[in-house]
Amino acid sequence: MIELTNKNKKNGRVTFLLKNSHPGFANALRRLMIEAVPTMAIEDVDFVHNDSALYDEMLAHRLGLIPLTTDLKGYETKKAEDELNAKNSVKLTLKAKGPCTVYAEDIKSKDPKVKPAYPKTPIVTLLKGQELEFEATAILGTSKQHVKFSPCLAWYTYQPKVTINNNHKDFDKFKNKYPPHAFKDGKLDAKLIEQHNLYEAVDGINEDIVKVERDATTFVFHIEPWGQLTPAEILTSAAERLVELTNEFSEALGK
Q1: For 236, what's the count of Cα atoms within 13 Å in the CB-facing half-sphere?
Q2: Which CATH number does the domain housing residue 112 bear?
Q3: Residues 20 and 6 in one domain
Q4: Are residues 49 and 174 in the same domain?
């Protein structure tokens, strides 16, 4: 069971609870989100002009690391024996002349659904008279091939439970050992500990005052996307891949 607990609109990070599960499943899901979800990234660059201070290989490397919005339904992963076509690749072009700073938004895509996720990402600065022109090819890939295809950072912890006794006889003796942000009106507050993620900071000081326990069947998951896909798309794609791998394994056992 999955329950959404927090969504940060500014950076896109999502936090959710995975309930009634176990570490093996949680870690498989985490790894698949990072390694098995395909995204678009620039694979090849053909330079027409490059008068900038960066040589072709350096610029190509920078271009490959620019996150591109990805349409998983519109494209399929290119196999080694396949030729490039409209189903497995998209062309992107750029033409600029200095003096200027070239940004990711200057890249023109043949498909409006595949474009730089962060338009103001700087690529290179051109001086007066310098030119940059290229045609690039983006394909679907996974981070097992190259980290540039990674869609996110994903991690989890066991769900913590905090028990607080502000009336303990040694409270005044130990209160200065707890972080200031954990207090409200001079008392330790469980909601503030959760809000500021202070579980590790308050744990182990005095368990009679603050005791932190963790539920081994409930996981607090965090997904921080790099911009190619939404957290929902990443989670859905990872879950689908997990089902595929499970079916493949079951079929192999049956042979």
Answers
A1: 7
A2: 2.170.120.12
A3: yes
A4: no
| Residue 5: predicted pLDDT | 77
pLDDT for residue 23: 93
pLDDT value for 255? 62
Q: Range of 184's domain?
A: 2-36+153-223
Regions of the chain with pLDDT less than 50: none
In sequence order, the β-bridge partners of residue 137 are 44, 91
Residue 215 in tokens: 């539920």
Mark whether 161 and 206 lie in a shared domain.
Answer: yes
Whether 252 maps to a domain, the answer reads no
Q: Which of 185, 172, 36, 54 has its CA nearest to residue 123?
A: 54
Q: Is 124 within a domain?
A: yes
One-character DSSP codes across 217-242: EEEEEEEEE-SSS-HHHHHHHHHHHH
Tell me, yes or no, whether 31 and 47 share the same domain: no
CA 91-78-69 angle, 5° bins: 50
For 2-61, the pLDDT digits (tens) are 887 777 777 788 999 999 999 999 999 999 999 999 999 999 999 999 999 999 999 999
Q: Which two tokens stand for residue 104?
A: 């990711």
Q: What is the pTM of this model?
A: 0.86
The answer as to whether 120 is a domain residue is yes
**Residue 187 sits in the same domain as residue 208:** yes
Nearest-angstrom CA–CA distance, 135 and 94: 7
User: Under DSSP, is residue 165 helix (H, G, I), strand (E, B) or coil?
Assistant: coil
DSSP per position, 33-70 = HHHTS-EEEEEEEEEEEE-SSS-HHHHHHHHHTS-B--
**What does the pLDDT read at residue 253?**
84
Burial of 63 (0-12, 13-18, 19+ CB in 10 A): buried
How many distinct structural domains can be found in the chain?
2
